[in-house]
Amino acid sequence: MNVDVLTNTARAMVAHGKGIIAADESIDTCKKRFDAVGLECTEENRRLYRQIILTAPKIEQYVSGIILFDETIRQKNDEGIPFVDILTARGILPGIKVDTGTSALALHERESITNGLDGLRERLAEYATYGARFAKWRAVIAIDADIPSEACIKANALALAHYAALCQEAHIVPIVEPEVLMTGDHTIERCAEVTEHVLEETGEELSRQGVAIGGIILKPSMVIAGSNAANQSTPKEVADFTVRVLSATVPRELPGITFLSGGQSDEQATANLQAMNALGTHPWKLSFSYGRAIQNPALAIWASDTQENVAKAQEALLFRCKMNSLAAQGTYDASMEESRTY
Fold it and tell me: Could you say which residues of the chain have pLDDT below 50?
């Protein structure tokens, strides 16, 4: 493990005003997105869509890295240039999703465990040859009256820590993503309680495995009321609860935190990030690692005319990246949304 390499890469991932695009949807997830806009989910359509994201003009102004899927890291653009080479030439770090999805956690109804540790050392070595500089692994924690269980929290924390250790062994920065799901009618207070416990357990397992905290990026969900809760959270509430939980659980030496959007709307995810950075200076950079909350407008535009709307789709993508970049700096205002032209 080369701590200097890991630390430098992690710091670059949270460079001032920059965040990460999660373009790592599995084929099944990509099919759901394409079905929603009436697109056939062929390999070529997936390549063309990822090409729009990876070649968007000036995106490097707002984006430090892009998380790729196994299929995408091996693909090339229309001119035969590998996508990874295009990103690297523009100063954007290529990343790779390495978990293989979730399955039911044995003896624990409605809970899941993330798979993918088998053969991970070998896969990381291969991804390194393609130029991957960081990786991502997502754990999923659901909230209900009687879940999450201790078994679920501890099992996923241990898997995240094993994954992170293997990444650092391969000189690849791990994004550690413990997602507490928004699905449900739980209060923001309940979400804070669960999130704090999940982050505590994850931190303890990372320490036990000898993971260098200065060489990872944390990608948590925001502390927010469930999507079906009677009282929905304001940006100020999300900011106050989230920062309070992070302050209680996250070491100061962690370079940065790039939040997932987790089902929030595009503008909601931006407003909540802005509210956190508006609170003042934090020990860690607070930025974004959004998927749908950045890609939604671009996909909808491109799907309406895949031949003619490439430039318009890229314009929409760039606009959302810019809004989130401003939020990462604490200088976003909702009125800026009116300036969009797509």
Answer: none
Task: For strands 63-68 and 19-22, give the pairing.
Answer: parallel
How do the domains of the chain map onto residue ranges? Answer: 3-339
Please confirm whether the linkage preceding 148 is cis (ω < 30° from 0).
Answer: yes
- pTM for this entry: 0.97
* Mean confidence (pLDDT) of the chain: 97
- Residues 52, 77: contact at Cβ < 8 Å? no
Q: How far is CA 104 from CA 140, 141, 342, in A?
A: 11, 12, 41
Query: What is the rounded CA–CA span in Å between residue 226 and residue 183?
Result: 6
Could you give the residue numbers annotated as active site?
177, 219
**Torsion angles phi and psi, residue 235, rounded to 5:** -55, -40
3-339 homologous superfamily: Aldolase class I (3.20.20.70)
> What is the reported pLDDT for 1?
85
pLDDT of 307 reads: 86
